[in-house]
Fold this sequence. Notes:
This protein is mainly α. It is built from 16 helices and no strands.
Amino acid sequence: MKKAVKDPKNITFALIAVILVCMPLLYTAGLLKSTMVIFLGKCIAFAIVAIGLDIIWGYTGILSLGHGLYFALGAYGMGMYLKMQATGGRITDFMQVGGLTKLPAIWKPFLSLPASILMIILVPALLAGVIGYFSFKNRIKGVYFSIITQALTWAAYSLFIALSPYTNGNVGITEIQSLVGSVKGKANGGNLMVLFYAALVLLVLIYALSCFLLSTKLGKILIAIQDGENRTYFSGYCVSRYKNFVYILSAVFAAIAGAVFVNFNGSITPTQMTISYSVTMVIWVAVGGRGTLVGAVIGAFLINLCEYNLSSGSLVEIWQYVIGILFTLTVLFFKSGIVGVISEKAAALRRKKKMKEAEA
């Protein structure tokens, strides 16, 4: 316990959490715009999905390029509940345009919040469980698993577009308020603070849960799978079960992140289900430093803050190239990411200090 408290990575996460705690306070003091607080709320959601990706990729060595699917499923689930609250349980305008005369059966569970939360967790978990079971049972790994996750994401994207009367196609679910009501404008500052702090608490809990799981025997087995899957098999462990468990866990984290995101964004579209969106999530983890947890959080905030500033300034036409170059440089020269590079430098300085002390 003491070791976890003194871990520099956990201390760094605690500092990030403290900084985030101050953001709504700066907003109430008039030093920060509400749009920035809302954006940081979205970044909290991105950090949650990045933690899940880091567990499966950074610690287990499974590269999933389809987590945008689970993120979107969670977001759609929450969006459907919020839309039902807005319409009073009646069918929506896009359902009427699509020729529906009554609420579809698939929408009925989202009339209540408990059922909606259950669906947000169960649907991605079951889907990931089925995909993981057949993939890992048949020893599908590496680039082949990445391609499968990409293909499934594309198939789901096409399905959501095709089922326009039920999902509103390309437009998605729009014009919805958060669980606590509208968060836009000064009049709704209180709602924004409640929502922001609730999301932050969720991020802290998921980070703490992840740290706990990785500190147990499970974490050691996941690292063993990454270092030598066959050797782990021969040691008597059912590797496919561990891989499937961690894949389901990361999918649930992504779905929870999607549910948080839609509360701040006020809408959800199939754009969040595209392959490029899933690849972007991987970039967050790679830049921050995979296999560190806090690196995933840093990467999610850093990349999205860069995007937020670059896409609205003089670099609006080339900001995507800037992010691409940053990712390329990280992969080529800083494979361990920001946190990894800092950790290596710190370790080198400690070694030099010990050598000087020994010489003295």
